[in-house]
Amino acid sequence: MIWIGLAIVVVTFYLIYKNYEARLVLALSGLVMAFIGQVVVGTNGGVSAAVDAFVKQLVNGGLVPTIVTVMGFGYVMTFTKCSDHLVNLLVKPLARVPVIVIPGAVIITWLLNIVLPSAAGIAAAVGVLLIPALIALKVRPVMAAAAVFIGTWGSVVSPGLMFNPQIADIAFKAKEIPAPDAMIVIMQEALPCAIGALVAAICLTIICIVLKEGVGSTEIVKELPEGEEIQKDFKVNPIKAIIPIIPLALLVLASKQVGVLPTKAFSVPVCMLIGTAIGLIVALVNKQKIGDASKKFCRGAGDGFCDVVILIAAAAMFASGMKAIGLTGALVDAMKGSQSVAMFAAAAGPFVMAAISGSGNAAALAFNQAITPNAADFGLTIVQLGAVAQIAAGLGRSMSPVAGGVIILAGIAGVNPMEVVKRTAIPAIVALIVVTLLMFAMS
Per the UniProt record, which residue ranges are transmembrane (predicted)? Predict the structure, then answer.
């Protein structure tokens, strides 16, 4: 049965790699394994347990409100153009200091991705401004695209990313942390990830110097498609630029580590709704219809449920199927003998899957559902193991030639996506090693 389970898992991730609908593939694979486990192995409640696992995630009080409010808030920020003001505020000064344009582009993209936690979305928002600016400084287009792309994993420390509330929920149920608060997870990830982002920026800068693709490296200035020119006349409104980071600032101030604001009063949904309310005021000032802004919030919340919550639920069904067929128990037993095996699996599995498929979400979700709850058996914490899995997925995506973000950026720069990832691969791998070591070194 274990070999049959492994075969089903391999087929599952192959189908996801071939761009079949991930939610459907995970759910069906989970049901098949649960059915085999119930009929052949005699597992009690195999199929019904898998369905229950699916339904529980749909009504998970720790996950669902967080995800839908973050997505809704993001849609309102886009509608009111507040996100445009924030991007312009951070991006435009780079052109004035040529020596830092490459590492600066990486760090700015990484930071913005925390506030706007969509890799493809931030690639489009930052790329359309930053790539023309870098090309105008005679940076080679492929390096300009690479500088933005390697920064598109900043969302790993965002409260809006699906994994952080998921890990917090698992850790809370295991009584590892006092509350199902994503900020507890983020605070443990923040420093290792920030160091990893800096390491990635330095690595890419070295590659840029070696390949001679930095400022002034080419006399050919690429003509950009209409609508993709740098917005030289864009006037940044500082107030609008600050609004997208207000919820994040409130969450930091209300975290247990900072404690300026009461933690219970400022949960992720509360902070996102505060930001949304401010966004509605901005819509009124912009003479936009407040009803349209409200519809954008609802659309974002709906997309969050559709794209994220149901994916988490499907991964839970998949994990339940693995447990029913006996695969989870076998994997845990195999890892119990070596802490290093568990550490390697958490980093390598989601990283490779993300690099191959362009999205490590399915792999990281399945790992966190099936293996992460058993972290104590390997001498690790749930936060350590789960965080490394999701960080690895984010970094793996930043060197995938089929990721949505690199396709967008390559299109803006007019280059081949494979040439871009040739430059981001080493920084991503080095950053993964650094972050993984730092996460597991934490007591």
Answer: 24-43, 63-82, 94-112, 118-137, 144-163, 183-211, 241-260, 266-285, 305-332, 344-367, 399-418, 425-442
